[in-house]
Design brief:
By secondary structure, the chain is mainly α. The chain has a single domain, classed as Rossmann fold. Helix content is 52%, strand content 11%. It has helices at 9-16, 22-30, 37-44, 51-62, 71-83, 88-99, 109-112, and strands at 5-7, 34-36, 65-67, 103-105, 120-121. The strands form two sheets. Strands 1-4-5 form a three-stranded parallel sheet. It has a two-stranded parallel sheet with strand order 2-3. Strand 4 (103-105), helix 7 (109-112) and strand 5 form a beta-alpha-beta unit. The longest helix is centred in the middle third of the chain and has 13 residues, at 71-83. It is globular and about 40 Å long. The two termini are 14 Å apart.
Length: 126
């Protein structure tokens, strides 16, 4: 499947709620799930999640590769924040994808499309 994929928070939620098109679900089912630490924080900070839902989320994260903030991601995040109008969490997600040569699967293409070196895939357009 090429370079690999980083899955954005909104895609994770849509995937776990079976809201993605079948083709996208099939693709996500066949790849190694890779997440930014930001996505881990965002999905586990869900205030209204029941214990059962938190277990599902933690189980999903436990079988995923989570990229923490290393120096390369930090420096790329700074560059992205200086050059683009992205919120800090989105800048870190974009930087994680770019620094690790991954394509970003997100339904928020508009938020990320201007970032040089970042390839985005909308799971609803596959």
């Amino acid at each position: 499947m090429g370079r690999g994929y980083l899955v954005d928070t909104n895609t994770i939620i849509d995937y776990l709620e079976n809201k993605l098109p079948i083709k996208s679900i099939e693709i996500i089912d066949t790849i190694s799930i890779q997440l930014s630490v930001i996505s881990r924080i965002e999905i586990l900070a869900w205030r209204k999640a029941s214990d059962a839902q938190l277990k599902i989320l933690n189980d999903f994260i436990s079988v995923s590769t989570v990229f923490n903030l290393d120096e390369g991601v930090i420096l790329k995040s700074i560059e992205i924040r200086k050059n683009y109008r992205l919120k800090l969490p989105d800048a870190i997600i974009a930087a994680t994808a770019v620094a690790n040569d991954l394509k970003l699967i997100t339904r928020n293409i508009k938020d990320f499309q201007s970032v040089d070196g970042l390839d985005c895939i909308d799971p609803f357009s596959l």
